[in-house]
Amino acid sequence: MSKACPVSRQTCSNWLMDAALAVSGAVAMLTGVYFLFLPSGGYQGGRNPFYGVTILFERHTWDQLHTWGGVAMIAAVAIHLAIHWKWVLSMARRVVRE
């Protein structure tokens, strides 16, 4: 244990991995909600009340945040599964056995 993390090293790395998964998942989710409620299609003239609406960032930036948030989430899940692969296999065997 170190002063930076008051628990075991493995527990601290699990927390960091879970935090990375939570943050990247939240980014992907929130940007997805943006795209759900502000679609880009349709008539771009006077009848579309959302034409030209910018909330915090341009649409391209929202798209980049969504894409890279998803990539980071997939990477975090892959690392998480790789680290806990023995546990995944043992649980799968237990389920099949029962």
Question: Which descriptors apply to this entry?
Answer:
elongated, 98 residues, mainly alpha
Write a brief structural summary.
Helices cover 68% and strands 0% of the residues. It has helices at residues 9-37, 59-83, 85-97. Helix 1 runs antiparallel to helix 2 (59-83).
Q: What is the strand and helix layout of this fold?
A:
Elements: H1 9-37, H2 59-83, H3 85-97
Helix pairs in contact: 1-2
Helix content: 55-70%
What is the end-to-end distance?
38 Å
Beta content comes to under 5%
Class based on secondary structure composition and strand pairing: mainly alpha
Task: Tell me how many strands there are.
Answer: 0
Largest sheet: none
Rg for CA atoms: 20 Å
Shape: elongated
Count of DSSP-assigned helices: 3
- Stretches with pLDDT under 50, minimum 5 residues: none
- The succession of helices and strands, N to C, reads HHH
What is the averaged pLDDT score?
Answer: 86
